Amino acid sequence: MNQQLIICGVGGQGILFVTRLLAESAIAKGLPVLTSETHGMAQRGGIVVSHLKVGAFASPLVRPGRADALLSLKPETVALHLHFLKEGGAVAANAQQSLADVAGHPVSLIDADSLALALGDPQAVNLIVLGRALADSGTLFCTAEEVEAVIRRKMAGKDKQLARALAAFRAGLEAGGKEDGAC
Amino acid sequence: MAIEKLQKRLLQGNEALARGLVESGCVVAASYPGTPASEILGSVKSWQQAEAVEMHVEWAVNEKVALEIAYTASQTGLRAATAMKQVGLNVASDPLMSAAYLGVVGGFVVVSADDPGPHSSQTEQDSRLMAMLAKIPVLDPGSPEEARELAGVAFELSERFRIPVMIRPTTRVCHACQDIELRPVTRLERTASFKKDPSRWAATPKFRYQLHLELNGKLAEIAAYGPTAPRCLNPEVKSRRAVVASGPAASYAKELFADLQLWDKMNLHQVIQPYPLHSSFVDSLLAEYDEILVLEETVGVIEMQIRDRHKVKGKLSGMVPEAGELLPEVVERLLAEFAGLTVPVQVAVQAQGGRRPTLCPGCPHRASFYAIKRAAPAGIYPSDIGCYTLGINLGGVDTVLCMGASISQAAGFYQSYRVTGQRKDIVATVGDSTFFHAGIPPLIDAVAQGARFVLVILDNVTTAMTGNQPTPAHGSPAGRAVHIESIVQGCGVGFVETADPLQLPAFTALLKKALAYSREQGVAVVIAKSPCLVDRAVPKQKRRQPTVSSACTGCRVCIDQFECPALRFEPDGKRVTVDPMICSGCGVCLDVCAFKAIVREEIP
Question: What is the C-alpha to C-alpha distance for residues B141 and B36, in angstroms, rounded to an integer?
Answer without folding.
Answer: 14
